[in-house]
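#dry-run=false #mode=assembly
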Amino acid sequence: MGQLANLVRERLHGDVTYYNRNLHLNSTNVCEADCLFCSFARLREGMPEAYTMSVAKALRWISERYQKGMTEIHIVNGLNPDLTFDYYLELLREIRANYPELHIKAFTAVEIHYFAEKYGMSYEEVLRALVEAGLGSLPGGGAEIFAARVRKKICRDKVDADGWLEVHRVAHGLGLHSNCTMLYAPLRHSKSELITSSGFGACKKRRTASSVHSSRFPSGEQPSRPIGAPTGADDLRTVAVSRLMLHNIPHIKAYWIMLGIKTAQLAQRFGASDLDGTVTEEKIYHMAGSQSPGSLTVDGLRKLIQDIGRRPVERTTTYGIIPEQEEAQPAVSI
Amino acid sequence: MTKELAGIREKVEAAEPLSADDGLHLFASQIS
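#status=ok
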């Protein structure tokens, strides 16, 4: 199956593996949702390790980590009941004003649904306002597993599968690109639940256009939660099945933060064509016990790709190709 | 290799899209 997945991957992308230079911001971890697999969220402000950055603090946080050459900021937050919609608009406006070179990939469909419910707006109204403020695309988080039985057990507070898909459908209608992320193995779900109710089945049946799902990455759970972890073989098989089944999604991303560096590297021979990016600085999976480093250098990423016999190509968020540029100062070496 | 998997191989090599049933077979045979 790995050979077949590799065949499809090489038909689509030859020997190229893509990466980007990105920065992660999680400006609040206060979150009303109590998901089984999450160690990042704190239910209320004032709880140990709960935090909410002001917009000014978020900008300082970015300025302390920003490096020349970065092209993307990835923003995912908790579902914080204490924030106004203006907070998010101001956050985007300020980032766009101060870092116009950064594409803003922000807010999962779960957050968009939460904003719509909390602030009495339609999905389209929420998205139009965010785009006006600087939003460039949606990350794929929150899809997890779409099967209702599994969803009820692992993330009962999140929007259901139909709602998640509807948010992306509306976003695509506005011209936004989006990702689709499956968080597999939080439960012993059945094979049919995986294939028919996760991103595998639903995105295939309900896609709008092939260009809008710019990538998708299976993510194994991290070790600190008391639920069974997938093996490396499970990870590679899932990558391979993803490449074979998802004709409407051009890139399968093996996200090194979640899969671990070695598995993500090997996945480039099992159907994946992307490693994600430098990721300065990931919090969500590290609070769940991820053993991966918090970020990688460009040189480190390129070496990982070359060592597996692939050709590294830097991309924008929407897979435009960036010519090789002078290396910026590394954040953390591998 | 089962008949179903052989059929899947043929489809992939011919660049034909796989069906949801094909996906079930892949999971059933490959995912532990």
